[in-house]
Amino acid sequence: MTKKFLSSYRGYTPILILAVGIMLFSACPKTPGEDFQSELNVFGVIRSDRGAQFIIVDRTYAMDDTMGWDLENAFVTMTGDTFCDTFHLWEYEREFRGFYHPLETGQTYNIMVAADGLDTLWGETTMPGAYAFIFPQPGDTVDNSDTIIIRKSPEGKVYEFRLYQNDTIAVMGMSYPDFLTDTLFRLPVEEMNLPEGDLRLEIAVYDSNFFNYQYQYGSNEYPQCGVSGGLGAFCSAYVNSVNFYFQP
Amino acid sequence: MNSKKALLFLLFITRTLIAASDLGGVNGFVNDAANGEKLSYCNISLENTQLGGVSNDKGYYYLAGLPAGPYRLVFSYIGYEPVARDVVVLPEQVITVNAELRPTTIEIKGVTATAERTRFERTVEVSHTTMSRREIKAIPVLFEPDLIKSMQLMPGVMPLHDLSNKMYVRGGSPDENLVLLDGIIVYNPTTHLFGLFSTFNPDAVSEAGLYAGGFPVKYGDRLSSVLDVTTKEGNSKKYTGEASVGLVTSKLMFEGPIPKGSVLLSGRRTYFDALVWAYAHVFKKDVNLPYYFYDGVGKVNFNPSPENRFTLTGFGGSDVINLADEFSGGTQIELNWGNQGASLRWRRVFNPKLYAEMLGVWSNFFTHFRYTDNTDSTQNMHFFEEIRSYQAKGDFSYIMDPRHTLEFGLQAENLLVAERWTVESGDYNRPALKSNLIDAYIQDNWALAPPVLYLTPGLRVMHYFVGNRLRADPRLGLKYLFQPNSSFNFSIGKYSQFLVTLNNQESFFSIFDFWRPLDKLHEPPYSVHAIAGVEQWIGEGTRFTVETYFKKYYNLLIPRQGDMFFSEPTESLDVGDGYAFGLDIYLKKDWKQYFGWASYSLGYTRRRVGDKEYFPGYDRRHNLNLVAGVVVPRQIPLFRGANLSLRWYLGSGLPYADAVGRYAYYYTYFDPNEWGYEWRVIKGPRDAFRLPLSHRLDLHLEKNIRIFGLLGSWYLDVMNVYARKNVLFYQWEYDYISEYPRKVGYSVLPIPIPSLGINIRF
After folding, report:
1. Nearest to A23 among B602, B690, B732 (CB)
2. Is 0.80 topped by the overall pTM?
């Protein structure tokens, strides 16, 4: 019976072989044909309290790229309303530093990064407006029943707290996304577990570029926060501090 | 035209010339004499004539238009002794002849009709395959025989990976499959052990039929396929049972007669938690396994008269995680989920020409999460979600004349999806999502030129009350038997769906789907299937089919890419379309105690959302399954007479988004003037790369033995015999000294996994 079946289809054998061949050939999975194009990758957080700003300059790498970091000759500039500064490679790989320029709240700052063989990267950030300490005021004594209150920055998106004792970070460095609509931000002292003594509370408020970079990008996406022509983040932070005495 | 066809043509002409008043008929049911189970597609012939017929899927037959006179009615079915009955057909009368066929292991000369062969000759069914309980239990398994895993060996059906228990049918995602258990919709059929096992206990299953496409108008509300599972009727002749103990579960099945009917009860439960509990108490160890699952099926048949039969079916099951003892301080976490449902079926033969089944169905899938803090009741929380539907159905079959059988029906469905949070301050109920759907269908099984050409034009009309949408799905099937053993099959039709899922259907692992009724904002998704193929029988026991298909999708609702788990609510789903086409080849040999099949599928699947077109994560280009079951020869002493089944699988790689580049993600430390970084990858297009080939060999060995005077068997299964590491996904791992990445592939089943168990029949 099997022979009969096969013989009845013998005439179609070449067509069948051809059809199967075409089918299998056309079914080969495609492979990506395009080459990987490297891009600049920068990370810069300019802060109002810093003497000289720095920008990390790097690039993206193909998975089989064994060259390592090779951007010693990158050209990095930062401009504000009153200055245009060219940054220079600092003592560490990747870190480019400029000179001191006072940064103002509400001002827009730009960077340009250029390197051989790579597209030029542009970045822009606007320093968030100032926030104000409602409590404590300088010299106040604070205890665990108190609440630290600040009037928030209009443009600030993230608040980062640091408490210093004798100029070292004493207790904590935390950041809170600004998801509250209230104009005041409250932080119960009891939750901070502070040591007794003279303390300095430093709060940095960051712009939306920083917020997006920190909170919106998972490991499966690559960030472009305040930059174009490459990836990474260019952000700014307004920083202020207040001294007080903590009595548990 | 050969002589056989000419004779049939003459008979047809002669019959039409005979006055209607001289014609009579015979009807009845065909059953298994040993247990009373129905015999579907049994061949019924009138000796020394070319007249005859076939029983339907419920064992009912009606031979109409018989010239008055004496006949010998012969019922034949492979594996059973034929039964002959002498009848005298009287004008304008229908004689009822019920038959019970006795199973036999002896080959009966001339009896070659299997159900599949009879279906081939008499019905227009494309892309339809069936699997019996025997086949399900003979396929190598991981710990437990599993219906869905068995169906993955059918042409056109593909799994995602070695442990996947989802069915991707001809480019369709699992939420496009309609899964029925005795007419009850099972919304989440693969929920046991975190998605590893299906909710169907194979001991209670009689047969499973899969339409990979082109399904008849009696089925609706899904885009791709239908898996219709029928449980056993229950032995109406004697009390029997089966018990089994495996590595994961123990099972018990009991069936037997009741007055005017039969009953079947079947249940299974994992028992590791009990063993660990006993071990902990005996040896004073602090160990606990806070997980188990169970399920059960119950069925009662009641036949008050030959024309009436009532069947009550119920099933239920649940997976339970109880972390009561895992925490100090009286905290308890309990999570359980499961399917449950019930149906009441009334089978009624109104008259020999009109056969009907009325069905009332309740179906439910639930999820509970309870957090109880015995020291602080304000922290207590309870989350509950369910999908619940009620259905009323009537399916009718009206034999107009020997050439036309009308199938028609009505269906009404009420669906509810509810979600409730209960905390200390009160209940938070999300407004329940409700929908109503009314369907009506009609199909003519038209023997246009028997036994050569058959047609099945049909129409299903649906009214969906959310948004007041009316849809019509026309469908057409054709069978042309160009040789007695060869047919050309064709089907084209439209298929609409009013249910959507929120979760990503490309996920490697998911326990259950989050079903939602279609909202007012979106148009109902629908697909169009066009299928053409050839079916060839080589001898009586070998079936060979080649089918090509093209399936076009419209208005698909797809969770957004990047939504790794699920989108909420339905308004956030992307609207897309797509298509799938391919070729399925199926060769099946079933002969005595030997069986085997080869299924090969070639498939292309594309989806489009906006202007982006892509291969979805389940687009497997090639899929090959080889299954063979043999009896171990006498020369091998220890396993002499044992049944050995082998399954080998070969599949081409699935698409994935590989890393094409890497970058450093920079951050500052607590000191804002210090910085660090971690490496991250830049992924290429989601479908630009393919995983390597997958292949695997599994085996099942089962030998009959006697245990305490009872007939039983032991079995041994080994999954992945030669320890193939089929890559499921890649991770890039970094050597932080050299900073060069290394691609590492991960497999879900990297080593051979043995499992064993014992069955006892009583």
Report:
1. B602
2. yes
